[in-house]
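Journal club prep — side note

Before the paper discussion, L.F. wants everyone to see what a predicted structure for a comparable chain looks like in token form. Sequence:
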Amino acid sequence: MDEQAAEGIPASSGASTCVITQRWVDRVAVLTVSGVVDMLTSPQLETAIDAALDQKPAGVVVDFTDVEFLASAGMGVLVAAHDKAGSDVAISVVADGPATSRPLKLVGIADILGLYPSLDEALAARNT
């Protein structure tokens, strides 16, 4: 991911556009994703998650609230992030709706990652 994308400026790849911003809530990295997460933009998501993990967070929350389309490539990035994080860092996903939560549930990713309908619920779960 280039520096512009890290600052919330879209990185365009043909018709696919994905914007990722990072903020911190205590020791939890919150990655807010919007647009399309597919084979063209999923490397951007992977880079953002890796950058967050490099900072040794207590957890990482990937917020897909504004994602219009989530392809299998994006789901693969989440599984890889879960494997990279190990048992020390919980990876959670905010997804509510047919474009995001439904595919995550159908392929079983919701069984290995925390899946929440809102960012507030994901953050609250980190504090319990």
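L.F.'s comment for the group: Confidence is low (pLDDT under 50) at residues 1-13. Keep this in mind when we get to the figures.
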